[in-house]
Amino acid sequence: MGLIQNILAVIVVLGLLVTFHEFGHFWVARRCGVKVLRFSVGFGKPLWSRVDRQGTEFAIAAIPLGGYVKMLDEREAPVPDDQLDQAFNRKTVWQRIAIVAAGPIANFLLAIVAYWALFVAGTTVVSPMVGSVAPDSPAYEAGLAHGDEIVAIQGDAMRSWADVNLKLVSIIGFSGELDIEARPDGAADAQRFGLSVTDYMVRQDPPQPLQTLGITPWQPDFPAVLGQVVSGAAAEQAGLMPGDRMVAIDGEPVDDWMHFVNIVRGNPDQTLQLTYERNGEQATVDLTPERNRLDTGVEIGYIGAGAEQVEWPEEFQREIRYGPIEAVGQAVSRTGAMTLLTLDAIRKMLVGLISPSNLSGPITIAQVSGDSARAGMEAFVTFLAYLSISLGVLNLLPIPVLDGGHLLYYFMEVVRGRPVSEKTQALGLRIGLAMVGTLMLMALYFDLMRLW
Questions:
Q1: Phi, psi (degrees; rounded to nearest 5) at 48
Q2: Chain-centre distance of CA 71, in angstroms?
Q3: pLDDT tens for residues 340-352?
Q4: Facing residues of 420 across strands?
Q5: Is 350 exposed, middle or buried (0-12, 13-18, 19+ CB in 10 A)?
Q6: What pTM, to 2 d.p., does this model score?
Q7: What is the pLDDT of residues 347-374, one digit of tens each?
Q8: Coil, strand, or helix at residue 203?
Q9: Quick one: which of 157, 103, 78, 158 has its CA closest to 126?
């Protein structure tokens, strides 16, 4: 069932992103007087199509991993004399720039709309309260302690753990004193803490922003009660069901959910005698955690079960909501910040500060799409917005075969006063295909490594 949900979620996500991207090209092309021959969502054989009054074929194809807008162009096929004024290659260089740039711009506009909707509807976040601090860590040495609420990092206000993580990811490679403002438990005013770090999270795989500083977020006590059980996994095979409370393992009492998790993780392929309670009655079963390999190479036990959700205390929750007008500015600001973060991550990956193993391909996108869909509309829309921004940034990279590569040629044409030669464009196309192909293979390889 999880696999089907992942597949459906990624089809919805990619379908929306591709449709908006290609509609950007389509809409501006029409406004510039270019005849659009086909607007296709997906590749391969069309499953559905229709032709409008202007002769454009709209199609949904069998392979939902992309799409395209095919325009009238003399470089691709002969064009009748009476339609030459509608050919893409006959338009001015600035019109061609507008048409090509419209696709990525549409992705940024989609992200803005998504964030606007979230801000207007309102989102509830958990305040960044420190749960514990590891001994001899940067946070410990600086004086951060249990109960401190982080209110700012490097001068930027923090309202949630999501804000904290995004800020910390943006400073990968930082060396020096990390300035954190935190409000001690029960205090009215915040204090400044200077955390000494060197080459922060450089080549860390996967990045662990909080753990690297020695900070563990506060969370309420989670009783050892099952909330979800994965079909076919060890927990279901042992007969466990949602609502079961874990009582003891091999005769030793289970304190809470994390105690139970730690025992399971520490015993892969080992049969454990589990005592649980269901409807007031206790029973004992044999539970054998499966062996699962993490991205770091560490092998842990896995039974395919999740904890029952626990309500967070109201004093630890923050509601973020804006009016329709104010939300526009906030949505534009968030989109801009995420765009800069994405560009900075690409730069740091190129210079070696971020491991290339953090690249994600279709398998990871499908998994995250499914997880975010199951987590609720807020998580799904947030992921959709971020993926739309990533698609927009990727397409603007100056790589031949991508929109950014075409824009590079057109801007060179503006400067030189004449188009780039077809020979140069053909060479660039081969180089671009090689680069994009290599990138896709790397992303797929790292996807498979995570899966295994």
A1: -155, 145
A2: 32
A3: 988 988 888 888 8
A4: none
A5: exposed
A6: 0.79
A7: 888 888 877 777 776 666 666 666 666 6
A8: coil
A9: 158
